[in-house]
Design a protein that fits this description.
Blueprint (H helix, E strand, L loop, with lengths): L9 H10 L5 H12 L7 H5 L5 H5 L8 H12 L6 H14 L8 H21 L2 H18 L2
């Protein structure tokens, strides 16, 4: 098993995901999300999301990320919707679409996390204009749908 060092740049992780060249991208993404709490000013995964196309990465079959990593990613991205809004909304929407509410490991965590995400998206939608407002509404719809599944 390859464990990324603490200095692994998040941009490399997202690039690996985008290229699909690494079998353990779930492990890399989890490591990236785990260190996000240590880097308050610039969490690595949220800062790197604009570098890759969310739909291209997450619509692969099977999805390269586990259910818990997807949920963590959605939660991390929603923590600050004041910067890189369009990219974060795309990743939130695509990751939320991949969530399986029937997954037994995910089930007990899903609703509380998505309620927080929904609240953050509603606040962002209230201040967004134009295409960002429409993207916020779409992400809200997807998250709400997953909460009520």
């Amino acid at each position: 098993m390859i464990v990324p060092s603490a200095g692994t740049p998040a941009s490399s992780i997202i690039s690996v995901l985008a290229l699909g060249r690494f079998a353990a991208c779930d492990l890399l993404t989890w490591a990236c999300l785990s260190c996000a709490t240590l880097l308050i000013d610039r969490p690595p995964c949220t800062a790197s999301c604009p570098q890759a196309d969310a739909a291209a990465v997450l619509s692969r079959d099977p999805c390269p990320l586990s259910q818990m990593v997807l949920l963590s990613l959605v939660q991390q991205l929603s923590a600050d919707l004041t910067t890189s809004l369009a990219a974060k909304l795309a990743w939130i929407r695509e990751a939320a679409l991949q969530l399986n509410p029937k997954d037994p490991v995910l089930a007990r965590h899903l609703r509380p996390v998505l309620e927080g995400v929904h609240t953050a998206l509603a606040a962002a939608a209230a201040r967004a204009v134009g295409p960002d407002a429409a993207s916020c509404r779409l992400a809200l719809h997807v998250v709400h749908s997953q909460m009520t599944s």
